[in-house]
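Hi, here's the filled form for the chain we discussed.

Project: internal
Contact: R.S.
Residues: 177
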Amino acid sequence: MKYVKIFEDYSAGVSESTYSAIPVFNELEFKKNINVKPEMNVKYSEVAATLKDLLKKKEMGEIQEVLVIAEVPTQGKGAPDYIKDIIAQERERIARKYKAQRGIDIDDDREGDFDFDVDRFGNQRSIFFDSEFIVDRIDVIDGKEYIIGIPVSLKDKGFEAKIAPIKVEEIYFTPKK
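And the returned structure, exactly as it came back:
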């Protein structure tokens, strides 16, 4: 009987930490102290409802901004259009640089020594993509709720990303001062 009680205590803690894994932070408090406890923890199935509540508070003027940290696919059919644009711009920039250094167009490279994914030192090329999004709205697409977010670094350019609630890792809100 003693072991059953120990297991019940253990499993309650594990299930609580597993299902309540997405923290919701007050951004002003978080900036003061990164070790601050979240205002609440939500299950991924409650993310859309929590964000709707925060967006309503934003409309009423209680909150200034709502942000999410989320993982967004960078390739394949689920990748947002702005990521494809960034990759195309980076390829073009690298092509101009390659032509300036070697005097050869990438298209005319008969030797085949140009590889976009590898830099001149043989390392994998890295391109930065936002993981921080300003929450614009919640939309229902094909019967599922998605978060429509604006990448923070591209907020002036009008790009949007469709984010599944399960991809959200953290939620931040900034209250009005």
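Let me know if anything looks off before we file it.
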